[in-house]
Design a protein that fits this description.
With 1512 residues, the chain is α+β, with helices and mostly antiparallel strands.
């Protein structure tokens, strides 16, 4: 028996590829829950001589969630450094000597699944997570690198021991990748072959590929598994072998130089000795590997059931492996192995450490392949500790992982000689009790109410009592039998029976000889013996005095009752504790003072321990029960509930207590003195036991999954922590985050949660011959710590010990019920931890139905006592008593206990209270309790407090009441703006029209239509009205598409098309046109299609414009117009004229052809593309287009619109020519020319002439023939415009600074240019000069060169007489007079309005700055007027002028007024300019005629100044 402390640690975490590691010198670490436990192995462990050389030396505490990875630094000089990763998202670097964090990072955003400290780079730690992200972290320079190689879940990764940049990564889907971190994670090889999770990766300890002699046959065992990516030159030029273990039951050896597999090892199925094969073993597998550094031709792997295999990689025969631990039974693990770690001790022994699902850590000697020692561990809370009174030193431990451990603490050869018992348990073991004198007989109780008996010396399954508790078994105790079990002869009944106390408050007596028989509730005997009529208290603890004559029962109300055998006569009640009693312990009988055996210590949910001396009471044996209210000793110091008490068997009056404050305390009870305090646990203590052999040795267990053996003499503290120290200890213990508070679990939720395996299929069956907890997550959560989380996804199923140290929702261990049996929902008897009240704050408590009565029941004690007296008087007085009636009226809450009339009075008062406090729903419920449903509905309707529930109950009061209630509720809902809900209720009573109207009037059109469509006839006018109303509103709000749907729904297709077109964009117009076509609105369809084409015209999208026009047959003529427009635009674009410029024009292919005369091209395309072959078709198109009239152009007409209108006229002209209608052709051409003239667009006018009349008007004159036809006036106008254009061309040619030779001008030093050149010049000059400005420009200086006019110019100048038409000059003069008079009149009106405005503002109340600002602008027109007119003109004078001018205009023949003519005076001025620049070229006669016209008609403002220049 060693005199050093020992630790039974938590189980290593499951399903992690690397969560344990070891370094030379003998330090081994493994992750358990949220910590890392450190074990010293070898001579330096300081173990007792003869015992295995290892010792648990410490714990790394800091993570807040499950630790998923752990790795040491394997670099000499820094073996003290290690790294851990956790589900809390951090990677921490630790110094194991100081147990402190050196640094940490939280770079990962997802759950970290793999971790490794590079064996080549001293400060490089590589980690990977479930989303495939890898982080390289350099400790010394605090630098990191983010790599994302594959979007898959990483399962393991291992850095190469030979090349510092190479890392091998194994993924969940079986892919293995070797990547180079120096090249930003470039994939060197992608190894494909496995088809399931990669559990482990091991590099060959030797570089190169010479260590294995692989035969040709083995190389061809499988076809080449190429990586899928050829890499010419890699860092693996020398090559190295890599081993991978996968869930697909194979180990593969890969050649890194070739990037393919060279060997496959298939795991064998091994029959276990001494037992059948577990049916689930084959499905459950974790394949971990270790490649020994001193044996490169051998490889260690795990197998299906926990066996370890040593493979010889050079052997080629079939059985190429050796099994570990074959020399004796039971050396191997009984469950799958998760991690293998090599360790070289100080005395150079080569060891291998393995962690397993069976919760053992085993150490193997690699020289002999035998198991050197085993370190057991716990997978749940340590609920109960019990030393065997017969087999001294045998300690039974009840654990939350569903197993009982029996620890032989006196073993000389093995400090951890622990046996596990799991058969038949299948639940948390919450209490244990050894039989006082029968060897190996151990009673156990579980959290699901099971009571059983184990024979620890047998391998038989336990006997289970047929009577279960409804709740957790709190306590077990052996004691003498009491009736009815004590009846009968000595040989017919056992000397001791088993008593169990359960969470439902019942104590059962079980017959250990016949557990299958019924167990007896001792409450019946207690009631009969003591003639008790009242309700017995809820029992929470049972304890027998050592002599077996006295039984103590602890109760939920804090009382302790003392009973005497054989019939359990109540002799004493102790009213000391006021909270649930958790533990009672009697002093042993072998003390130096016999009276000490009458000492009874008790602990409750209060932190105070009381010791009572019952010697007097027991010896006096009173006839009636005695009540004790004063303790013998009081032990104060703990700050939380007391869970267990144990007397020292070696001392008098020495007691140890376990508490929720996280400490165990040794007391000298006689002196009420605290002696020493143990603070080693990181959780709340649940149990404590004093060693039966060693006075200085105590064992304690807690909810931190640990059992500690500790020595009182070695403790630094003498009393529990108080104040700040207590808080600090609390912080230390509660370093994990608290899980979300959950509701207390119902009994149906008790079964342990199965650990979902990584493939999501693993689950133990109930009849399985394995420990239940092996299928449960390592930190199975103790389920009392928190409710099971929803089944995790396969990737996160590796959540092995997310369980926090502190439990939250349901009470832990052996907690006892706090409330009554009915309300007690917790499984175990400890109270919830401290954060539970906060959780309750968040969940609002339901409001009381009878608050006034409840409050009256919470008054002072005197009042409550008086209530009882009044009630007793009322119930038992035979005659009515006025005083009693008055008291009952005042104390209305007593109606609950008297007659119905008084109860109604109480309900009425309570109901009024609810209404006054704004809780009508509670008032309604009270009325319903009375059965007054109709009254409830009427009251609620009057107050506007009807609810769904009330209306739902209305049919119970009759059909008409229901109809009325629904209508009333609908009105109430309308007041609350819940119109849709109101309509639904109206529909429930078949008031469809009312529901529809309600929805419509509140603008719920969509809902109204849905209801009407579903419930009314299709032809019902209400439906159409709904559609039209909604459509109108949608149209007003700009939702045109939905509005169109409404109109279509109302069969008003015309409106639908119109509203769609409202937006005016091309897409909407086209859709509207198509819609109109579908519904047969041909005229509308045509107009919309044309509008669509015109919109597309703005973006020069010619192709779609033609497609839009194709929608309707009647638009064939418009298609011709658009075709001509497209060709003209293309022509202008080629000539680089501004009217044709476009950045994104979309032309047809036929528009790209530019050869041949323009008109010929047009007619050809019309024939080929638009099928315009016959004269009839041309005539039809002409007639159709002729009906369309466009307004005349102005200076402000947009150029694109102007071009369209001109092309419309030109199309008519071409069509007229096709049908030889020359009169119409002349008129159409004249309209096109006059449009360009009116808009001031001289360029277009000239282009029309150059395209349609390239040789002048002679061709048309010939075609017209008879010059006395009605068209003669039109032709003369057309010819005049042609001459007008030529005149300007000549003038511009002369007006250039350096005139060049052209068709109009000859420079002296040049020869006559060619026609092409002269056209270019003409075009350029037309571009450079604005015709309007030119017409009013000053005469430019004569050119310096000797310039002569060409013959063409001479011909034009001689023909200019045609322009000097006296009639046209007179008409235009009259028109100018009219315009001037109208302008003057308009100006006079404006001036008058302004002067009136000035007067009103001057007399107005405000003189703001803006009005002052307007004064100058108001006066300015008047000043201008004065400047322009020396003397004002009177209104009669103006009227006279206007009348005369109009009379003159009326006298002109219609032929002159109908057709436009160039401005005669303007032509005179231009001609005189040319004459002044080229003297001799304009005849004197012509000049004189021009001057005469100017003198005669040049009196208007526009011409006065120019006339003075030439006529004076």
């Amino acid at each position: 028996m060693g005199q050093e402390p020992r630790t039974l640690p938590p189980s290593p975490n499951w399903y992690c590829s690397r969560c344990s590691d070891a370094v030379p010198g003998g330090l081994f670490g493994f992750a358990a829950r949220t910590s890392v436990f450190l074990v010293r192995v070898g001579p330096g462990a300081g173990a007792s001589p003869g015992t295995p050389p290892f010792r648990v030396v410490g714990e790394l505490v800091g993570h807040s969630e499950r630790v998923s990875g752990f790795t040491f630094s394997h670099h000499p000089g820094q073996y003290n450094l290690c790294a851990s990763s956790s589900d809390d998202g951090t990677v921490k670097i630790w110094d194991v000597e100081t147990r402190a964090v050196v640094t940490e990072h939280a770079l990962h955003q997802h759950t970290i699944s793999a971790l490794h400290w590079s064996p080549r780079v001293k400060d490089l730690i590589v980690s990977g997570d479930e989303k495939g992200v890898v982080f390289c972290y350099w400790l010394n320079r605090n630098d990191s690198q983010h790599l994302f190689i594959e979007p898959r879940a990483i399962f393991c990764l291992t850095c190469s021991p030979h090349h510092e940049d190479l890392v091998a990564i194994g993924y969940k889907d079986g892919i293995v990748v070797i990547m180079d971190i120096s090249k930003k994670g470039e994939v060197i090889h992608r190894l494909r072959g496995h088809d399931d999770e990669i559990h482990s990766i091991a590099w060959c300890p030797l570089p190169g590929e010479d260590c294995l002699s692989l035969s040709q046959e083995e190389n061809s065992e499988e076809p080449d598994i190429h990586n899928g990516k050829g890499v010419a030159q890699t860092p693996l030029s020398k090559g190295c072998y890599l081993a991978t273990g996968s869930k697909d039951q194979t180990i593969r050896i890969w050649s890194c130089s070739r990037g393919r597999g060279v060997m496959i090892l298939k795991l064998p199925f091994l029959k276990r000795r001494g037992g059948g094969i577990d049916p689930t073993v084959k499905e459950r597998l974790w394949l971990t590997l270790h490649w020994p550094s001193n044996q490169p031709t051998q490889l260690v792997s795990s197998c299906f059931g926990g066996e370890l295999l040593l493979w010889d990689l050079n052997q080629s025969w079939r059985r190429r492996y050796t099994l570990f631990g074959t020399s004796s039974e039971g050396q191997n693990h009984s469950r799958i192995v998760f991690n293998l770690c090599p360790l070289q001790t100080e005395d150079d022994r080569q060891l291998l450490l393995s962690t397993s699902m069976d919760r053992d850590v085993k150490c193997w000697d690699m020289a002999t392949l035998e198991c050197s020692w085993t370190l057991p561990s716990l997978g749940g809370f340590a609920y109960s500790l019990a030393f065997s009174p017969v087999d001294t030193g045998c300690l039974a431990i009840g654990v939350g992982d569903g197993m009982i451990r029996v620890w032989n603490t006196l073993s000389i050869k093995n400090n951890y000689d622990v046996k596990s018992f799991w058969q038949g348990v299948k639940s948390k073991v919450t209490s244990l009790c050894w039989h006082p004198n029968k060897e190996g007989c151990l009673a156990f109780g579980t959290d699901d109410g099971k009571v059983g008996l184990y024979d620890t010396y047998s391998s038989k399954p336990p006997q289970i009592s047929s009577t279960y508790h409804k709740k957790t078994v709190y306590t077990l105790a052996w004691g003498p039998p009491v009736p009815p079990m004590s009846l009968g002869g000595e040989g017919d009944r056992p000397s001791l029976t088993l008593y169990s106390c359960g969470g439902e408050g019942i104590v059962l007596q079980h017959n250990p000889w016949k557990l299958s028989g019924e167990a007896f509730d001792i409450n019946k005997l207690i009631r009969d013996t003591n003639s008790i009529k009242y309700k017995l208290p809820v029992h929470t603890e049972i304890s027998w005095k050592a002599d077996g004559k006295i039984m103590a029962l602890g109760n939920e109300d804090g009382s302790i009752e003392i009973f005497q055998v054989p019939n359990l006569k109540l002799i004493c009640t102790i009213q000391q504790h006021h909270k649930l009693v958790n533990t009672i312990s009697w002093h042993h009988e072998h003390g130096s003072q016999p009276e000490l055996s009458y000492l009874m210590a008790s602990g409750s949910n209060n932190a105070v321990i009381y010791v009572h001396n019952l010697k007097t009471v027991i010896e006096n044996n009173p006839e009636s029960p005695v009540t004790i209210t004063e303790p013998y000793r009081t032990l104060s110091g703990h700050t939380a509930k007391i869970t267990r008490l144990a007397w020292s068997p070696h001392h008098d009056g020495r007691l140890v207590s376990a508490s929720y404050d996280g400490t165990a305390q040794v007391w000298d009870t006689l002196r009420e003195e605290p002696l020493c305090n143990f603070r080693g646990h990181r959780g709340r203590l649940l149990c404590v036991a004093w060693s039966p052999l060693d006075p200085d040795c105590i064992y304690s267990g807690a909810d931190d999954f640990c059992v500690y053996k500790w020595l009182p003499s070695m403790q630094d503290h003498s009393r529990p922590p108080q104040g700040k120290k207590s808080i600090e200890l609390e912080k230390k213990r509660l370093s994990q985050p608290k899980p979300k508070p959950k509701k207390k679990k119902k009994p149906t939720m008790r079964a342990p949660v199965k650990q979902e395996m990584l493939d999501g299929t693993e689950e133990e069956s109930k009849d399985n011959s394995d420990p239940v907890e092996n299928g449960v997550s390592d930190a199975e959560g103790e389920e009392d710590a928190q409710d099971p989380e929803p089944p995790c996804s396969p990737a996160s199923a590796s959540v092995v010990s997310r369980e926090p140290v502190v439990c939250t929702a349901v009470s832990s261990g052996v907690e006892k019920s706090k409330g009554s049996i009915i309300n007690k929902m917790s499984l175990l008897k400890k109270e919830p931890p401290k954060e539970k009240p906060e959780a309750l704050i968040k969940k609002r408590k339901a409001r009381s139905m009878l608050p006034l009565s409840t409050n009256l029941d919470h008054r002072s004690k005197e009042e409550l006592h008086h209530d009882c007296l009044v009630l007793a008087t009322a119930k038992h007085s035979k005659e009515p008593n006025e005083d009693v009636s008055a008291d009952l009226e005042e104390r209305f809450h007593l109606g609950l206990f008297t007659d119905r009339a008084t109860l109604y009075k109480m309900i009425e008062i309570e109901g009024k209270g609810h209404l006054e406090n704004g809780h009508p729903e509670l008032f309604h419920q009270l009325m319903l309790w009375k059965g007054d449903l109709k009254g409830v509905l009427q009251t609620a309707a009057e107050r506007g407090e009807l609810t769904d529930n009330l209306v739902a109950m209305a049919p119970a009061a009759g059909y008409h009441v229901w109809l009325w209630a629904v209508e009333a509720f609908a009105k109430q809902l309308c007041f609350q703006d819940q119109y849709v809900k109101a309509a639904s209720h109206l529909l429930s009573i078949h008031k469809v029209y009312e529901a529809v109207e309600l929805l419509k009037s509140n603008h719920f059109y969509r809902e109204a239509i849905a209801v009407a469509k579903a419930r009314l006839r299709p032809e019902d006018p209400v439906l159409k009205d709904l559609y039209l109303s909604w459509g109108t509103i949608l149209e007003r709000d700009g939702h045109y598409a939905v509005a169109a749907k409404c109109y279509l729904g109302a069969t008003s297709a015309y409106d639908a098309a119109k509203v769609l077109a409202k937006k005016g964009d091309a897409a909407s117009l086209r859709t509207a046109a198509e819609l109109a076509t579908i519904v047969g609105e041909e005229e509308l369809s045509a107009s919309l299609a044309l509008r669509c084409a015109q919109e597309l015209l703005l973006t020069k999208n010619w192709v779609e414009a033609q497609e839009a026009l194709q929608l309707h047959q009647s638009l064939q003529g418009q298609r011709l117009v658009f075709c001509l427009l497209e060709l003209l635009s293309r022509h202008l674009e080629e000539k680089q004229l501004p009217e044709g410029k476009s950045s994104s024009a979309s032309y047809h292919t036929w528009a790209e052809v530019t050869e041949g005369p323009f008109v010929e091209r047009v007619t050809t395309i019309w024939k080929t593309i638009f099928s315009l072959d016959t004269q009839e078709q041309c005539q039809a198109a002409f007639e159709k287009l002729q009906t369309i009239k466009y307004p005349s152009a102005t200076n402000n007409t947009p150029s694109k619109q102007l071009l369209l209108h001109i092309c419309h006229d030109l199309t008519l002209a071409v069509l007229s020519q096709q049908v030889a209608s020359w009169d119409e052709a002349v008129q159409a051409l004249l309209r096109a020319v006059s449009r360009s003239y009116d808009s001031g667009n001289f360029t277009i006018m000239q282009e029309v002439y150059s395209i349609f009349l390239p040789d002048g008007c002679d061709y048309l004159r010939d075609k017209l023939g008879d010059l006395h036809s009605p068209t003669t006036a039109a032709f003369k106008s057309l010819e005049a415009f042609f001459l007008y254009g030529c005149l300007y061309d000549i003038w511009w040619a002369l007006s250039r600074p350096c005139p060049r030779s052209s068709i109009w001008v000859r420079a002296c030093h040049r020869r006559m240019p060619s026609v092409e050149q002269s056209q270019e010049v003409e075009n350029a000059s037309a571009e450079e000069t604005d015709p309007e400005t030119a017409s009013q420009a000053e005469p430019s200086k004569p050119p310096q060169l000797d310039v002569k006019l060409s013959e063409a110019s001479e011909r034009v100048l001689s023909a200019c007489k045609e322009l000097f038409s006296e009639k046209h000059a007179s008409l235009q003069d009259s028109q100018r007079t009219v315009a001037e008079v109208q302008e003057t009149l308009a100006e006079m009106i404006r001036q008058h309005q302004k002067s009136q405005l000035c007067k009103s503002t001057a007399n107005g109340p405000d003189k703001d700055e803006p009005e002052q600002e307007t004064e100058p602008s108001l006066s300015s027109p008047q000043s201008q007027c004065k400047e322009e007119k020396n003397e004002p003109v009177s209104l009669p004078e103006l009227t006279k002028r206007l009348t005369e001018a109009n009379a003159r205009i009326a006298k002109f023949p219609e032929s002159i007024k109908t057709w436009p003519f160039p401005d005669v005076l303007e032509c005179c001025l231009v001609l005189l300019h040319i004459g002044s620049q080229c003297p001799g070229h304009v005849t004197q006669e012509v000049q004189q005629q021009a001057q005469e016209l100017l003198k005669k008609y040049g009196n208007t403002k526009a011409y006065k100044r120019y006339c003075q220049t030439f006529c004076t």
